[in-house]
Amino acid sequence: MSNVRQLRDKQPENEKLTINLGFVDLGRIDLLVQEGFYSNRSDLIRTAIRNQLESHGAVVAKSLERHTMDLGLRDYSVADLEAVRDAGEVLHIKVVGLARFDPAISAELARETIGSITVLGALQASAEIKKALVDRIK
């Protein structure tokens, strides 16, 4: 008998992207890294993206409000979906960021309670839930 137990797998806190850059832009990035302005290429790219997003902050805020979208991390549990079902309601999920579904949620419960899912960012759900909702994920 072992006293070791499985801890919940750590979920990634970010998503990996691949971009194509011209050699001149890449060289200029490497020069800034070499000169100590940034710790590495990724640091410069993350900073540039954050600066662009900040410069468009008002537009993003208005769009979130207009589309009634949640911003950030949104977790859904079995209890959340059971409460929706018991209230006779259907969810129309709209998230900018990360939407996570508890692995204990059954495909049947998901189909009963979720009318549509729109995620701009990432969706973390079991393969069974994704398959059950394939016609409702936009």
Structure description:
The protein has helices at 23-34, 41-55, 57-66, 78-86, 107-113, 127-132, and strands at residues 70-76, 91-101, 114-124. Strands 1-2-3 form a 3-stranded parallel sheet, with helices on one face. The chain folds into 2 domains: 23-55, no CATH class; 58-132, no CATH class. It has 138 residues and is of the alpha/beta class. Helix 4 crosses helix 5. The longest helix is centred in the middle third of the chain and has 15 residues, at 41-55. 43% of the residues lie in helices and 21% in strands. The chain is elongated. This is Nickel-responsive regulator. It holds the Pfam family RHH_8. InterPro entries: Arc_rbn_hlx_hlx, RHH_8, Ribbon_hlx_hlx.
Summarize the helices and strands and which ones pair or pack:
Layout (H helix, E strand, L loop, with lengths): L22 H12 L6 H15 L1 H10 L3 E7 L1 H9 L4 E11 L5 H7 E11 L2 H6 L6
Parallel strand pairs: 1-2, 2-3
Helix pairs in contact: 4-5
Observed structural traits:
138 residues, alpha/beta, 2 domains, three-stranded parallel β-sheet, 3 strands, 21% strand, elongated, Arc_rbn_hlx_hlx, Ribbon_hlx_hlx
Give me a quick take on this structure.
InterPro entries: Arc_rbn_hlx_hlx, RHH_8, Ribbon_hlx_hlx. Pfam families: RHH_8. Helices cover 43% and strands 21% of the residues.
